[in-house]
Amino acid sequence: MWVYCSFFTHTHPHPHLKATRVEVNIPNTVVIDISSLSEPIRIIGIYWLASQQRDLDDLQSYVVEGSISTGDFNATVKEWIEENNLEYMSSTAHTSTRSLRNIDLLFSNMTAISSETLQCATRDQWVMLLSCGNLSFDIKNIFPRTNWKAFEAVLALLQVF
What we know:
The chain has 161 residues and is an alpha+beta fold. 17% of the residues lie in helices and 29% in strands. Strand 2 (29-34) and strand 3 (41-47) form a beta hairpin.
């Protein structure tokens, strides 16, 4: 998901996709608000190394209605999930290319959200694609469909970078 969002919004901006980065003073953490959908979404992406000191309570002020928290937590998060009314969203397959583990975890307080594991790798993990059936763009034009085979080819070409 992060590779797709980063690639799409930074190299080929779409005039109807409006995202704002929220300033965060937590290392290896990104918070983005997407406001051009029928409902606003906040995406919280983290990569916390096992050796990095972390406190999930630091994220609590960033969790709002319509939040998606995803990333490599490398920590036990059950209590934090319950306190923030989040649910674990399982994917269609494991995300590690080396084992049957799920490297990244996904939590959300949104309804009708689902996650699919795409078998195109970004280093040591497969890409997770999120979809939500009750969200749409607030525009009259149709948003172009993504050719996932072409996207997979671009990821394969860019993987060395």
